[in-house]
Amino acid sequence: MGSRFEIPNLGDELFAELARVRKQIREDESLIRDSKRGLKDYLLSINGNCDQENPSQLEVAQHVVAKEKAIYMVLNMMKLRQANGLYIGFLWAPVALESVIKSELSNFQTTEFQSWRPSTEYD
Question: Rounded distance, CA 102 to CA 97, Å?
Fold first, then answer.
């Protein structure tokens, strides 16, 4: 019939390895919990007093970064006019603010403000 083979007893070694891996998982989970707790405490310590009168310092910093990013994004989209070395940029603004924008930009000699109106020839 068939042949018989001796199978070594691996149970003790496998259970020892399983116990070691489970212990490592528990230690790693503990490290993650401690890291999250430490990060939360740090962020609360630098954020300051966030009551109704004082804004969150992190939110203020986030708004400053968003504003700076928007400014540089617009500056990067400007095109250099070859004739006189000036940059051309486009902006969107409500029509109601057009006169205010023109008057504020008139203080700068190198600034030219022109309104763009879509063609209505297709109407």
Answer: 9
